[in-house]
Amino acid sequence: MTVIRIPTQLRELTGGAGEVDLQGATVAELLAALNAAHPGFGERISEPDGSLRRFVNIFVAEEDIRFLEGIDTPVAPGEVVSIVPAVAGG
After folding, report:
1. Does a structural domain hold residue 90?
2. Which domain range does residue 29 map to?
3. Which ranges of the sequence are coiled-coil (predicted)?
4. Does residue 47 belong to any structural domain of this protein?
5. How many separate domains does the chain show?
6. Is 27 within the bounds of a domain?
7. What is the pTM of this model?
8. Distant-in-sequence, close-in-space partners of 19: CB < 8 Å, separation ≥ 6
9. Band of the pLDDT at 50, cuts 50, 70, 90?
C-alpha cells in the first residue's frame, strides 16, 4: 500500500481524510485508483488529456515527479505520495 497525502482544499472529496492508502505501481495508477475510490478527484487535478494541471505538484518520497518520470514515475510500496497545490503570492 502507498499513502497519498491529500491537501486541505481537496479533502471534501475524501470525506475529510488527509491521507488515503491505495495500491499502484506508478503515480498514474495511484491517481486512477484515487479517482475510482473518490470520484471527481481526477477532474480536479488533471487536464482532459490526462496531464496534471499546472498548479498541481506531486511528490514521491519528497521528489517532484516533474523532475522524475512525470505521472509514469514508479512508486514502491510504502512510499509516501503528496499532492501539493501550487502557492503563489507576493
Report:
1. no
2. 2-85
3. none
4. yes
5. 1
6. yes
7. 0.91
8. 3, 4, 5, 6
9. confident
